Amino acid sequence: DRQVHEVQSYMGHLETADKESVHLVENEIQARIDNIFSNLERLEILSSKEPPNKRQSAKLRVDQLKYDVQHLQTALRNFQHRRYQREQQERQREELLARTFTTNDSDTTIPIDETLQFNESLQSAHRGMDELIGSGTNILAGLRDQRVTLKGTHKKILDVANMLGLSNTVMRLIEKRAFQDKFLMLGGMAVTCLIMFLVVQYLT
Fold first, then answer.
1. What pTM, to 2 d.p., does this model score?
2. Looking at the 3D structure of the chain, how many domains does it have?
3. Residue 115 placed within a domain
4. pLDDT tens-digit readout, 154-181
5. pLDDT confidence of residue 126
6. Range of the domain at 1
7. How confident is the model at residue 25 (pLDDT cuts 50, 70, 90)?
8. Residue 144 is assigned to a structural domain of this protein
9. Integer CA distances (angstroms), 2 to 19, 65, 132, in order
């Protein structure tokens, strides 16, 4: 909990950080998030070794922390995409203002209307890409949440099966179904990433 609150506090510094230090803040937040994920993996292993009467509550607590950290990761990525979009627009404005326009030589006259129209189209494409990336990030986060849920359900089923003394055949069928669900989820994530890549390639 303390580490999650620290990351949330650092997230508040992103909006007020200047251009020179914002990258440092982002790197610090990412490092803390990676460290929390690593600690959660160890906690998940420890929770599975708890006594049966405490195991369920410990597992739910770990899942909640994992869910909170995943949302912090998504928020950081969305901020980075917005920052990248702003920087792109600023560079485009600076390049446009830095161009030299002539009125005497028709051969070297830059078509201002076409340049502005191209700039507007480019900005519109970037906005569409930003929205698409944000949507794709949310979809991937949802798929990760489903993976956590499926993993938790699988462990609960195994715990109940152990308590009821089900046969090894039934246990193998349960594990096989969980294995198939995992590949379906990974396939969905792969298809989503492929669609995002193709759309970005098309827009650019």
1. 0.43
2. 1
3. no
4. 666 666 556 555 456 666 776 777 777 7
5. 64
6. 1-98+155-203
7. confident
8. no
9. 28, 11, 33
